[in-house]
Design a protein that fits this description.
By secondary structure, this protein is α+β, with helices and mostly antiparallel strands. Helices cover 55% and strands 13% of the residues. The protein contains 48 helices and 25 strands. The strands form 6 sheets. It has a 7-stranded antiparallel sheet with strand order 9-8-7-6-12-11-10. Strands 16-15-14-13-19-18-17 form a 7-stranded antiparallel sheet, with helices on one face. α15 runs antiparallel to α26. The protein is globular. It starts with a strand and ends with a helix. This is TBC1 domain family member 8B.
Amino acid sequence: MWLKPEEVLLKNALKLWLMERSNEYFVLQRRRGYGEEGGGGLTGLLVGTLDSVLDSTAKVAPFRILHQTPDSQVYLSIACGANREEITKHWDWLEQNIMKTLSVFDSNEDITNFVQGKIRGLIAEEGKDSFAKEDDPEKFREALLKFEKSIGLPEQEKLVTYYSCSYWKGRVPCQGWLYLSTNFLSFYSFLLGSEIKLIISWDAVSKLEKTSTVILTESIHVCSQGEDHYFSMFLHINETYLLMEQLANYAIKRLFDKETFDNDPVLDDPLQITKRGLEYRAHSEQFKAFFRLPKEETLKEVHECFLWVPFSHFSTHGKMCISDNYICFASQDGNLCSVIIPLREVLAVDKTDDPNRSVIISIKGKTAFRFNEVKDFDQLVAKLRLKCRAASTQCDVAISSDATGQCGHLEEQPLTCQKECSKTVNTEALMTVFHPQNLENLDSKMLKEKMKEQSWNILFSECGRGVSMFRTKKTRDLVVRGIPETLRGELWMLFSGAVNDMATNPGYYAEVVEQSLGTCNLATEEIERDLRRSLPEHPAFQSDTGISALRRVLTAYAYRNPKIGYCQAMNILTSVLLLYAKEEEAFWLLVAVCERMLPDYFNRRIIGALVDQAVFEELIRDHLPQLTEHMTDMTFFSSVSLSWFLTLFISVLPIESAVNVVDCFFYDGIKAILQLGLAILDYNLDKLLTCKDDAEAVTALNRFFDNVINKDSPLPSNVQQGSNINEKSSHTKVDITDLIKESNEKYGSIRYEDIHSMRCRNRLYVIQTLEETTKQNVLRVVSQDVKMTLQELDELYVIFKKELFISCYWYLSCPGLKHHDPSLSYLEQYQIDCQQFRVLYHLLSPWAHSANRDSLALWTFRLLDENSDCLINFKEFSSAIDIMYNGSFTEKLKLLFKLHIPPAYTEVMSKTSSKGDELSTEELLYFSQLQVSKHADKKEAESGKNTPEKGKGKIDIQAYLSQWQDELLKKEENIKDLPRMNQSQFIQFSKTLYNLFHEDPEEESLYQAIAIVTNLLLRMEEVGRKLHSPTSSAKEFSSTACDSGPRGPEGNADSNVEKGPSSPREEHQWSFAFEQILASLLNEPALVRFFERPLDLKAKIENVKSSQLRSRTKV
């Protein structure tokens, strides 16, 4: 590798380097201790230790080339190499291309300048296609070389960054280098001859946290597959930890949580991930979450500046954040002043000539924002003007195309259809229809409601109204007191960011409603079942108006997002949204909740809710330690709080109190729910500490929820769920407003950043726990059908899954990821294709030494692939491995027999003759799909009809029951049911046996035994053949088989297989039954000993665990 020329003082380096070659201008040196017997003694060990600690590949590579300046002790290092071949290549290039040119120059200075320029040019040329786009490319290149040399991962593995740190092995710290790459966390240390190499795949990490103990002041704790690893002495531990957290979560999303990853195009290509890219992505995600912007937005620029706050008459310091369609500002002081300015609202962007370097942004509604002390404000103004022009152009095009599309669409439809479409969507909130305010009869509650409205109107006059209003501490205080009924829908839309989604997608909801009406699938069936369970006591949902609106919103969302479809609890949330928001607004609020504010809550595994429950448990440990000590099992909080998170307390609180919680949720996000949960437990702390079991604790909490009231609610008594209960109850009443205020006062110090960090940390734990559950269920099912021990089965499952992931590490489109579906049964969640099976077959099978091992792997795969979808699951895979290792003589022979008859057997011919029996990936996949595609297409079509996720039709329960019954009645295969083996198949079967016996200690006796068996079988068939033909080719085959015996598989037997089936000499082929072959082989003790020889599966698995990744490196 060419290096940026750096000065080296040769006088001090002579002790560490030995001269290999030299000429007038260059010197090739070898590192002392490298390539010497015994490692070069003590000097070699010391040099190796120094190499491991120092941060320069020029010092640690075993070979280097220096450019020498005559009459000087200072040399320039220009190249280094990991091996002699690489450095020799560089040396030869210098002699052929540089040496002749240097003789032209007159002065030594000119020679040095020319060499330096040439080497820099070579480095620049190499760096054109390099993916090491980091802040210090030269230093990163050196670290990359050291990473590849010491860790030994495949060259496709992308190094993201590296750090110097200590790894604690027991109580001893080992200084070395931590390498963070796309798929692995690696550590390497070499101290005084002791080498430590650690490689942990990110997908195996179940815990990642920063810890501090008496010995380790601050360290990073990594837990992988039950083993704990500690790393300390980082220069920038926070930066390191955040990057590790991002890489671990990326791997978890990509491999385990496909639903989330499919919606995440930023991380689609694992080979393009860089440290800078990850940091940029983290800032962008934080930006979108804080300002509740659409998920398509990305952060482009950040500028520190001051924003003039007119109603407070002062400028607040903060950051201006700019994306494609928004200008946002957030203050850095405690006032929490923030502003969101959509570019679609901007009328003009101006700058002032005063020394304040001010940028003035004017928006619709006669409002202007003044940003002072903006750096590079001339360039910023020019950029913003361009963005505003582009935004206004897009808006005009969208409006015109939408209007044209609607007109054209309406012209094609009859008049009756137009009337139906206009009446489909409700244009008013259900609350205004069913509970209009009576302005003539103002009681005390209505007066308080009017006072709230007046407070908000004063705020609007000061801070503005709409998307671009100032959001301050006063705004939060008003939200905590409860949003007025008349403003609730508007402010929910504003604080959730749903107003932006609706503004940028005009007409979308009506279109989706029209397309989704009449569809029938599993989601719509579940929706119909739950419609009348959604706030059934509320008059709005006792009428067709409310039920129809709820049906349309839920069906439209299931149509928009089929990966989520419909999940229980969505009906309860949506019904509340419909009470206060118009139907289209309720749809966009549901989108905001499901896709941004509560990510992964409503998918099939409710991972998001489980993660937030784990965060809640962590907060309980921190803020309510006495409760943690009393409750022996923390899962109690998970079981109790699940409905709190999924329904935002709507399912446990009376409706009039729950809407106040929803107010806070739309303003503060999940932070509001966590704070309220802690406040509820704190309020009931004494009661919970006296509870003896979980049932008593649940009863205490339910009694508390029944007594939560909203004394200021203007809703009629027949609507308020808690009014009747509370009147008769003797328990203390708790006002929801006071409870929310208390939660803010006690737990308002919880930061968004802390919640985000806890979410990332607990996401690893939750997903790994779900994966462990999947594994245990698979093992429980499979263990009933195999003879392997549970430990062997467990380790085999890990290897099976690891191979699937390894094949997905470096490829964008991987069948393993494409077919992974967590909603499927446990057995079907992970399946491998033929190429992945071949790798595992080579690693695990006791027959993998055979010359035709690729063909055997192919035939085994085809045999196991009973449903012809070109994928096999773990149960099918383990059944084959179990027979090979634990099967009886008859079971092993039956497996080999079935491999050489259809549907498993197919004639295999490699296109590359030089490879012999080895098959390329393309050939393997082609043969695995041979005579399968039609059946697979038919099966896919049938599954499309019967499976609600794939087809639009109703689910066929009868088909599932029939399939289940067939599996229950499935009996063990009788050997008499096996078809007969024809001539060409028997030839290949004999060849396979010869290949299996190759290099066996009893090889000669085994060859003789198979020759005897072959001759015996042929004589048995000869009598029958004479009835059809006076001549027989059986003798020809006998001589062929016997001749190939002594030579083994390297003979000319390959050509016989290809000629066998196509030979026109025979009009009547002979065939053998399995019983004939079995009986003949049983007569040969050598053959029986070979197949009944005990095989150590445990030792094989241990060997594979250590070599699985290394074998992929060779590939």
